[in-house]
Amino acid sequence: MVAIYTRQSVDKKDSISIETQVDYCKHEAINEEIKIYTDKGYSGKNTNRPAFFNLMEDIKKGLITKVVVYRIDRISRSIVDFAQFINTIEKYNCSFVSSTEKFDTATPMGRAMLYIIVVFAQLERETIAERVKDNYYERLKKGGIGGGPAPYGFDIKRENINGNMFSVYVPNENIFVVKMIFEEYEKSYTTLADIQRMLKDKNILTAKGKSWDNAKLSSLLKSPAYVKADMLIYNYYNEQKAIISSPISDFDGTKGCILAGKRESNSRKYADVQNHTLVVSHHEGIIPSHTFIACQNKLKKNTQIKNTFKGKYTWLTGLVKCGYCGYSMSVRFGKTKDGNTGYFTCSGKYLYKICDKKQTHRIKDVEEYVDKFIIEKIEKASHKTPDKKVDNSYITRILEIENKINNLINSLEDAKESSSKYIHQRINALDTKKQEILKENEKNIVEKEIPLPTVKEYKAMNFQDKKNTAMSIIKAVRLTDGDIDIVWR
């Protein structure tokens, strides 16, 4: 039986249709029984296609004596894949015919010519891919959208900017949800789970009509598309070793950003932005930079807490220390009249044998003691503390000085010995100026104050929320025989 294999990646006006391919191939199977295998909507970059898989299975069963295609690139544009295909059909005594490229696979010269054509087909595919990639990044550098769906809260619209048409993000009716998510998550006591519950209660779904989960919320919070790009954002992504393609002057606190780069298939979006390209786009930023960065730091801190403090017996896990040796207090259980009771015991004594103080504290007693003082702290705190704005005007001057220093360091390589002395003096002078600016602005470097939860909110918290709150306001709980000392952050 003769197999006619057809493939069409996209249905375009100038592409060869499946029907036309079949008509050409039928000329190679006159008076023979035929079976048609069709993969529509599949690329030729590999052979992961359902109809091709069925074809290979039938060849291995001995049902196919000849495979006919319109052109050999219908099989694959990969040299490796095509070579494997030829080896397989030869193993099962099956011949191969291209209806528009007459090659006889039974001869060495025919096989060589086939491989040469496949080499050029792969070269063409790689050249197109490289050209598409170059165009993609060129659009990004000009502030345009590279492609893909708009982030939640935005639509895509074509606009004329400085005489050129660009696809840009424009806010839609969901942008208020984005603002609410950032504002809520910035609060020290709010977790992703809290926001998830809040959105569920308000019946707010994702752009695809699905319920929010931690992964979707985390991805939204990490997206720089929402932030007002200023010098804080420039510094943040510069420290993350992202490739910043926009000039410093574009970071004026009005526009949002676009971040693009290749990532591993099993890695999370925005998890590692090193060597990713960041550009200031044409769309308006929505979220203040200090709010965005506070959320990034909180996401990173929560990851560290999640990986480090996995205790499930107390919400004070990771905070309780021995007041004598400084080692962490671990949890142990003992049978009492109240049942199986949890105690804090010194790791320095029982694990490392360096502490000679004998002390045990019931978990319940310590939690009640700390609970009382957290509530007292909340009651004393003002819940109407105005936000303090971050003064970052000096950062531009610092960056300019650093750029000058870097240029001078680079020039030292080609400098003559007589002039290198003056370059070193200039570098030292610039560095002194930089230190003066930093010292000058120490008192102005402030973080946005975040209010504590209310007593009602605190008392209603679940185990995980209470643990996160304790971690955010307590540095350590030191236990000694008969005493508990809380060290606040």
UniProtKB/TrEMBL annotation:
<feature type="domain" description="Recombinase">
    <location>
        <begin position="151"/>
        <end position="305"/>
    </location>
</feature>
<dbReference type="InterPro" id="IPR011109">
    <property type="entry name" value="DNA_bind_recombinase_dom"/>
</dbReference>
<dbReference type="Pfam" id="PF07508">
    <property type="entry name" value="Recombinase"/>
</dbReference>
<dbReference type="InterPro" id="IPR025827">
    <property type="entry name" value="Zn_ribbon_recom_dom"/>
</dbReference>
<dbReference type="Pfam" id="PF13408">
    <property type="entry name" value="Zn_ribbon_recom"/>
</dbReference>
<dbReference type="InterPro" id="IPR036162">
    <property type="entry name" value="Resolvase-like_N_sf"/>
</dbReference>
<dbReference type="InterPro" id="IPR050639">
    <property type="entry name" value="SSR_resolvase"/>
</dbReference>
<dbReference type="InterPro" id="IPR038109">
    <property type="entry name" value="DNA_bind_recomb_sf"/>
</dbReference>
<dbReference type="GO" id="GO:0003677">
    <property type="term" value="F:DNA binding"/>
</dbReference>
<feature type="domain" description="Resolvase/invertase-type recombinase catalytic">
    <location>
        <begin position="1"/>
        <end position="143"/>
    </location>
</feature>
<dbReference type="InterPro" id="IPR006119">
    <property type="entry name" value="Resolv_N"/>
</dbReference>
<dbReference type="Pfam" id="PF00239">
    <property type="entry name" value="Resolvase"/>
</dbReference>
<dbReference type="GO" id="GO:0000150">
    <property type="term" value="F:DNA strand exchange activity"/>
</dbReference>
<protein>
    <submittedName>
        <fullName>Recombinase family protein</fullName>
    </submittedName>
</protein>
